[in-house]
Amino acid sequence: MALRRKVRSEGEELPLFDDTREENVKDGKVVFRQQSLDGDRGNVALLLFLYMLQGIPLGLAGAVPMLLQNKGVLYKDQALFSLVGWPFSIKLLWAPIVDSVFSERFGRRKTWLVSSQYLIGVFMILLSYRVETWISDPKGPHTILLTCLFFALNFLAATQDIAVDGWALTMLKRENVGLASTCNSVGQTAGYFLGYVVFIALESADFCNSYLRSEPQTEGILTLSNFLYYVGGIFLLFTTLVALLKREAADDVNDGQDQGIAATYRQLLHIMRLPAIRTLALILLTCKVSFCACDAITGLKLIEAGVPRERFAMIALFLVPSVGVNHLVNI
C-alpha cells in the first residue's frame, strides 16, 4: 500500500493509508504515479523464484503423508506429521528477531535469506541420504523423526519467507510494492505444485510408465531421495548467486528505525491488542473449523480405498486457474 496525503483546508497534510500510488500533492490535488515494471522486471522475477523455492518444502510436506499412507501408518501418526506446517502459522513469534538482528555489512534481509536458504539446501542434501530408509523401514516408518525433520525444514522456509517479505518492500519501486503479494502467492503456488504434484507424479511408476516411458519399469523417474538432493543443490546454487550478485539497498539497512528485539516485541504486542486485529485473528482461527476434518482426512481415505496417489495429486491442477483469477482480480 502506498501512503496518500490528504490536504486539509488549512494546508495541513494528513497521512492516510490507501491502495493508490501517487507522486505528490500539488495545489491541493493528488498527482498519481502510474504503475510500471520498467526497472523492476528483474526484481519481480527474483521474487517469484525466491517464493517458488519457498513453496517446495511446503509441497513436500503435503506429499510425504501420501507416501506414509501407502506404508499403512495410523491416522494418529498422520495427525502428528501434520504439525510440520505450523512454522508458517506461528512465524510471527520470531519475525521480530529476523527484522532486528542482522549484519549491516551483508544486509538486513540478505543476512537471513542467505543463511536460511543455505541451511535448507544442506538440510535437504543430508536428508536425502536417509529419508527412504526411515520411510520404508520394515518395522514401520519413523514418523516422529520425520515430523521433527520436516518441521525443522519448514521452520527454515518460514524464516526465509519473513526475510523475502521484508526485502520485497524495498526491492520494488514504491508504485510496484503491491506486486509483492502477487509474487508471493504465484511463486509459492508454483513451488507447492513442484514439490507436491510434480514429485508425486514422477515418483509413481504407473504414471511414468503410462505417459513418459516406452518400456515399463518398476520405479518412477524420481525418488524422494533424488528429489531432495537435486532441489537442495538448486537452493545452494541459487543462494550463492543471490549472495554474490544481488545487492540490498543501503537505505534499507540504515533507515534509522532499528528498535531492538525487546522494542519490536512490545510493538508487536501492542498491535495484537488492537480490536480489529483481535477480531481478524478470531475469524482466521475459526473459519475452517467446520470442514477441517473433511479437508484433512478425505485424501488419505481415498488413497486407503485404492485411488492412486498421483491421480489424487492431480486434483491440485484444477486449483491453479482459481489462484490466477484471484490475483488478476485483486491487482
TrEMBL record:
Q: Which SUPFAM superfamilies match?
A: MFS general substrate transporter
Stated membrane topology is: Multi-pass membrane protein
Q: Which residues cross the membrane?
A: 44-68, 80-99, 111-131, 143-164, 227-245
Does the record bear Membrane in its keywords? yes
Its keywords, alphabetically, are: Membrane, Transmembrane, Transmembrane helix
Manganese is among the record's keywords? no
- Where found? Membrane
Q: What is this protein called in UniProt? A: Major facilitator superfamily associated domain-containing protein
Q: Which organism is it from?
A: Graphocephala atropunctata
Q: What is the lineage of its organism?
A: Eukaryota, Metazoa, Ecdysozoa, Arthropoda, Hexapoda
